[in-house]
């Protein structure tokens, strides 16, 4: 079977002024690849894990502790890819075409030479074959120059050759590395060491300033390597207003308690996509704008025989994307319900379709927005999840823009993407045992407080 690579290119950089963070970058972090079926290599104990997640710029950061003694790094949590990678090496991390990543140094980098438990992955490992997206498991060792005889006898223990891994817009180049990963139990004081966790040690990237932890379903992903692929995880992303505040985070829960049934969480089935089996897809049935129904095309509800369609749930993409034709209708229905003056200047500056000068004196003057997924699951979004203030108020008016975008190329791959911005203050449950995704709108800051993750 031939491999098929296709990269989704949409949502490039843009910046807007926002009171506490100067720049918001577009993230698209999902990678396509055919992969051998994921299997947990080392079933982990049944204890649940809980790791703090917080907002930073246009995504959500996860703390990774790698090595002996542990080195701490902050990386983006991405449900749209599998690989975990960290900037690696001494001071040499290079990010090509990164606008402003001076502040990102504080995210930390990994020094293999300072860890006593670090090793390079070898060419005949399952992970090495996976990252090289080969369906011939001998390829990586052949690349290292071993003789066939030694490859067949399993005697070619050369290092896994360097790889590149491609995201929506970005590329990273690195080497597969293994080291101890330290994780936390539901009780933060309980830690557990996972030996030989496999990740990318990356010295240079194109447009990827910050490391990433992959939460997809492929063999390399963190839930997969830790043996949680048949359980699940859940997160509750804080409001964007807490972005860049290190003092507040919410728990990312991995294990049984993440998926334990609760009445308030509504579940929609995950769609099966044999072509992109690592991704999480749901079916979108309708959109409601100020109570008016907007029918959506069939391609958003199900994956067709070519493997295209469905709505990707992706924490590594910032804004929700809709197919172009639907997006145009979405803007016109939304626009027809709003009487505030348009701010064409901000639309031009930000690239968003609808910006308004909203009088500061009125509250709740913008139409409600709900998504209905398969199984009559209705997710009503808090207003700040779609209309966001782009600049401080001038006293009378505040400019708010609709932060939803059209898919740049909707002819293949997912038909739409549910991005992290629209997941603020929504608990999202990835139930992998029952192959369903649950949503529950709630105030995630309260969860931070109840877990002692808001430190004054
Ligand atoms: C990185 O720094 C450590 C300690 O400063 C040093 O021992 C090591 O040789 C350096 N490695 C490289 C690749 O420069
Ligand atoms: C779908 O859910 C809504 C409430 O969210 C309810 O009013 C409606 O009757 C449900 N429809 C079906 C077909 O179950
Ligand atoms: C705020 O902006 C609006 C629209 O541009 C303008 O009409 C109004 O006079 C401004 N108010 C102040 C206090 O500057
Ligand atoms: C964050 O916490 C530290 C102490 O832990 C405190 O000094 C600081 O004021 C807090 N910052 C914010 C913005 O709450």
TrEMBL record:
Gene3D superfamilies: Acid Proteases. Belongs to the peptidase A1 family. The keyword Lipoprotein does not apply. InterPro entries: Aspartic_peptidase_AS (IPR001969), Pepsin-like_plant (IPR034161), PEPTIDASE_A1 (IPR033121), Peptidase_aspartic_dom_sf (IPR021109), Plant_Aspart_Prot_A1 (IPR051708), TAXi_C (IPR032799), TAXi_N (IPR032861). One of its GO terms (cellular component) is extracellular region. Residues 1-22 form the signal peptide. Pfam families: TAXi_C, TAXi_N. One of its GO terms (biological process) is proteolysis. It comes from Amborella trichopoda. GO terms for molecular function: aspartic-type endopeptidase activity. This is Peptidase A1 domain-containing protein. Keywords: Aspartyl protease, Glycoprotein, Hydrolase, Protease, Signal.
